[in-house]
Every structure is written in C-alpha cells, then in structure tokens.
Amino acid sequence: MRKLLAFLMFLVCLPAFAQVDKSEVRAGNRKFKKDKFKEAEIEYRRAVVKDSTSLAAQYNLASSLYRQGDYEGAGAALNTMKEREAPAQYHFNAGDVALQKKDYAAAVRSFRESLLRDPADLAAKESYIYAKKMLENQQNQQSQDQQNQDQNQNQDQQQEPQPQEQPQQQPAISRQQAQQMLNAIQAREKETQDKVNKEKAELLKSKQKEKNW
C-alpha cells in the first residue's frame, strides 16, 4: 500500500532533481544498496554540509534515517525542503513518515498534497484511503476511551461511602426546666410511696380481724 522512502535514492537522475551528483551522494548510494544505512547516512550528511541545497542529498538522508527507524529524523530531513517547490514524491514520503509515527492526520494531509500534484498515482490514492481509515479508527478509539473513562468516574462516585447521618442533638433545657422535671419525678415517687403505705396498712387491719375470729 505504501512506497518505501528508500525509493528516493533513485530520483537523483530525474529532471526534477537536476543536481550535481556529488561524490558523497554516490558513496552513500553504494552503502545504501548494501543495506549499510548508518554509513549511507554519514555520506549523505557530508553531502548536505557541502551543498545544503542538494535535494538528492536531503532526500536520501531522509531515506537512510527512515530505514534505521528514525522517523523523527527522517521527517526533519524532509522538512528542510518544505519551503521549496516540492514534487508529489516529497509529499508522498512525508505521508509515509507520518504513518510510521501514527500521526494519521498529518499523513492524510501529505497524501492529499501528493495527489493534487499527481492525481494518477494509484499508490498515493491507496495510501490516502488507508490513512483516512486509520485516522477514523484512531478517533473512534479515542472517543471510546473517553466514554469508558467517564463511566469509570461515574461508577467511582456512586461507590463512594455516603456520609453517616449525625444523631440529632436534643435541645438544651434551662436550669429551671430541669428543676421542674425533678420536682415532678419526686412528686410521683411520693405519691407511689403513699399508695404503697396505705395498702400495707389495710392489709395489716385485715390480718388483725382474722386473728380476732
């Protein structure tokens, strides 16, 4: 679905890249073909130092970094040519780098730019569709993750222990009210005691009568 960024090393012969083929670029290309990407990177960097305007050196430097898995470095190398009139291949490879970094929004933009410059590029069309699909999946996943997070927060809030009801405090009474209550209690106790004594007296009289018989 995607072209390899390494394809850029062969673009040095195209008219759009009418640059003087420096010895460092040629040396880097030989290293690249042998999969010695780190050594190729060094040669391309030397070429860039000598001629910072060399599109071949910049593109192939990005290619060697890409093959080493340094997608940040590859993207930075491509960005040095951002202000120039870049061909469709530049935007295609920028999209390829963005895919590797899972920056699908940037990939969609880059492949769209590539198609604007070369509408007949089937690989660019396929990659554009692929990037759009991956972006939709990423956005849906982020939305689902947010919903799950919100649900978990709601569940945590529902499971939090509810505050215990505090016993209602009895209203305070005055000293006078307390004395009145005490007097009432004592009066009831006296009344009860008098009743008991009366019952005892009647019981005693009854026993005396029975003894006289």
What does the model show?
- By secondary structure, the chain is mostly helical.
- It folds into two domains: 5-140, Alpha Horseshoe (Serine Threonine Protein Phosphatase 5, Tetratricopeptide repeat); 176-213.
- The protein contains eight helices and no strands.
- The longest helix is centred in the middle third of the chain and has 38 residues, at 122-159.
- The N and C termini lie far apart (131 Å).
- 26% of the residues are buried.
Q: Briefly note the structural class of the backbone.
A: mainly alpha
Average of the residue pLDDT scores? 76
Q: Work out the number of β strands.
A: 0
- Stretches where pLDDT falls below 50 for ≥5 residues? 1-20
Query: Could you state the CATH homologous superfamily of the largest domain?
Result: Tetratricopeptide repeat domain
The CATH C-level name of the largest domain is Mainly Alpha
Give a nutshell description of this structure:
The protein has 8 helices and no strands. By secondary structure, the chain is mostly helical. The protein has 2 domains: 136 residues, Tetratricopeptide repeat domain (Serine Threonine Protein Phosphatase 5, Tetratricopeptide repeat, Alpha Horseshoe); 38 residues.
List the helices and strands and how they pair.
Blueprint: H1 23-33, H2 37-50, H3 55-67, H4 71-79, H5 88-100, H6 104-117, H7 122-159, H8 175-212
Helix pairs in contact: 1-2, 1-3, 2-3, 3-4, 4-5, 5-6, 6-7
Tag the structure with descriptive keywords.
single chain, 213 residues, mainly alpha, Serine Threonine Protein Phosphatase 5, Tetratricopeptide repeat, 70% helix, rod-shaped
